[in-house]
Protein 1
Amino acid sequence: MKNEILQNPSLEESFDLLKRDNPETFFHNRQRIRARSMIVSFGYCQVDYEGRASSSLDFGDRLVILKKDGTALIHQNEKREPVNWQPPGSSHEAILKVEGEEPTDLILRSVRSNPFEVLDIAFREIHLLSILKGEDEAQLNLSGSEKSMGNRIMKQPDLIEQGFIPIEREKKTPFGPVDIFGKDYEGNIVVVELKRRRVGPDAVSQLKRYINALRKEESETKGENFRGILVAPSITDSAKDLLEEEGLEFVSLNP
Amino acid sequence: MKNEILQNPSLEESFDLLKRDNPETFFHNRQRIRARSMIVSFGYCQVDYEGRASSSLDFGDRLVILKKDGTALIHQNEKREPVNWQPPGSSHEAILKVEGEEPTDLILRSVRSNPFEVLDIAFREIHLLSILKGEDEAQLNLSGSEKSMGNRIMKQPDLIEQGFIPIEREKKTPFGPVDIFGKDYEGNIVVVELKRRRVGPDAVSQLKRYINALRKEESETKGENFRGILVAPSITDSAKDLLEEEGLEFVSLNP
DNA sequence: CGTTCGATATCGCCT
DNA sequence: AGGCGATGTCGAACG
């Protein structure tokens, strides 16, 4: 249960550490990797991905992370997103390429089975290799999402308008659940779509789809009137135009 | 230009390393951080985020990455996504909290100015602290995206249908650019929307919005006929229903 | 499994 | 800076 940290190890030393940390060896130069917690490496490498799309990344120094759930991440020194990755459930192995007597590359290979995709990270030099074995049972506690907007409206329906009566949360339609389904003070059916941030035309289309689906479902029995209300902090101009064209309404509400 | 790597440093040693690596000190116990390439740390910490939403994460061992562009990432031992983060452009500092004589916490604070959001990472123990200074000029070369589908169709228009004539790529509408705008063998106007993966109802709505916008723009001058074609590897059932209702068409094409 | 949609989405392009 | 759409989007909830 001790972390292993190597500074500027040779490719062979790196391979041996990965080998020592895991009993299942494929061949003398191929080693399955199962991280206990995380394996973190920083080194000079080249990256190739082949799958639904394909990509290549020329040599450079970057950070590679292998997680215990099979996630693989490659981070350059900018941006929030990994330049290449493999999602959870992938399997990892290390391959030591030898030319004559000398190891030339240490390849970390990550394979995803469905869809079949392969990620190859070929190291020429390794500046840092660490096998980290910490404990982490904690789970994130998040508030301020769309769900909490809905909770607030259910508790205080006149945030939408005076006399609004919510009936059903997440009411099912063929195109997905309506956020809040209710009636206004006159008895008209009201479909509410919530967004936690400024909305564009896509949200208007989404609301329209729900209304059309419900209208088709219910209007055959009774001749009800339908209103659609988009609830968000703000709305773009083009979305406002579309909204008015479609006879829908907007209510401003912060998350 | 040498990497600095500490294994199981004290909070004070960690703070001193960060201090040594950067000349601008705010106070004796507050230190601005500007990573040359990346700062990578693994330790026992608690995380709080307050901004558009807010979150808290109880103590556990996790990986923290600070990048030179101001990105901050916190990774647990599962999933592709960071549990907390700050996007590029944020500013980082280290704060050593002292109770009596003893340091109790090393806080890495990341602040984003617009919108104003603060991320606090409070370390109790540090298992690994590394200041990494590699070089990476390489850029990702990706193929197989939506753009390449468009290129293929422009070169070989009958992938859409016999006699299709593309006229304009990315033609502007008030709701965004139409992927391919053209005519069929009868002279009807054709609006093509490309998707590199299986499409749902949102793509149908998107295509319909474009057609409506173009129809409004052009039909006043001439009485043209409009066709909308969704091009993707496949389509979901509900999207197919919606598509037929709207009088639109589907062509299957792999990316 | 597939479908659908939210996200502290991020990112890039264009106006 | 804001609008808009793509992403190898990811992730969760539900059928």
Note: Helices of chain B lie at 11-20, 146-155, 201-218, 237-245.
Protein 2
Amino acid sequence: MISSVIFYLLKKGAHREPVRITTGEVAEQTGVSQQTASRKLISLERDGLITRVGGKVVVTEKAIGEARKLLREVLDSLEGTSLVFNGKIVAGIGEGAFFVKQKKYMQGFDKLLCFKPFPGTLNVSIGENDIEKRLQLREQKAIIINGFKDGKRTFGKIASYRCAINGIPAAVIFPEMSVHGLQVLEIIAPYNLRKKLSLSDGSEVKVEVTANIPC
Amino acid sequence: MISSVIFYLLKKGAHREPVRITTGEVAEQTGVSQQTASRKLISLERDGLITRVGGKVVVTEKAIGEARKLLREVLDSLEGTSLVFNGKIVAGIGEGAFFVKQKKYMQGFDKLLCFKPFPGTLNVSIGENDIEKRLQLREQKAIIINGFKDGKRTFGKIASYRCAINGIPAAVIFPEMSVHGLQVLEIIAPYNLRKKLSLSDGSEVKVEVTANIPC
DNA sequence: ATTACTAATTCACGAGTAA
DNA sequence: TTTACTCGTGAATTAGTAA
């Protein structure tokens, strides 16, 4: 478990190289006695979170990974995450509109994204370089629009994130059962974006996705 | 003191609005009993880190500030901080060269920045918009080159950060007793940057400063 | 100087439970 | 349901100290 002792060691740069750190110093900085600091370092070492050689301390990869994950999660929630994609408009097959129009989805969008989308999706093909960012995005906490059943057909849930396309508020959606691969972002907005932004197939657009930010 | 309970609350977005969070939930997520979670929330409330109204929890500004500070510090150390300045070359008064040439400083640069600088400084005037970033930079942990006394004269310490100017490794220095204001960044590098980058007064350059990153 | 053991102590914990 | 009280227990902490 990542403790304040690990945070202190990381602040000291003990993840890059062995750093001379005494138990007394840790004690003072984390508000415990020297003996407790000693015990904590021993137990961190036993748990494989640090290694010690000759009074110098190194934080292990394991601990670095855990710490980074925790910090990222909290900081993303605290400050939001912004990812910018550059892409080009590509033609859809009209399938998007059918899904977006579904009443239950509409209700979900209105409630969770705070707008009623225009019945249609704008497909943006992102560059090779942005695929990595796309994967990063999917690690962010999404706004989930629940799926539902409609007699014969099942409509899966939709993960979404608020975004701005060329500065206009919108949302990027990742339907559970998407027909699109990693290359295409599906965008919905309160209006017909093609008209509003005068877009046609091949137009270049900038999509700035902001995760972990409220309406 | 910022605890894992605060982190959990922040992940839940309890810094933006009151969030319904039960003691049982906190207990489960932080690996303690419901009773302990209850006690911890009570003590957080007593310490003014959270407030509770009708089962909903909000994290106070005080706690948010502390958490942000801690997270930033650790994350900066872990991942380094990168700040990009755009600026223009301006003429110096030759004073920089005199200081940089001092043997003691030279030794310090070589040891801490891992290069022997060309005896001269390149002055980059940054835009209005970048002043804020400059202040941000000075909050980062600097590489400190110690000052010294030379009989009559006192040479103050120099704070420095590694950087890349138009992609070339260099360092930006902030002498304790600088003649420059907030507008000008002083750059040193292993070579004559004016020649190497074919710069003249007024040339536009990009300076990417990377703090908290080793040589 | 620093580390970490043992012994004494405390105070944090979970169980049980009332509201 | 959830919260938070009391109480008994022991794990975690500090003091003292040896190495």
Note: Residues 32-36, 39 of chain A lie near DNA strand D (CB under 10 Å from a C1').
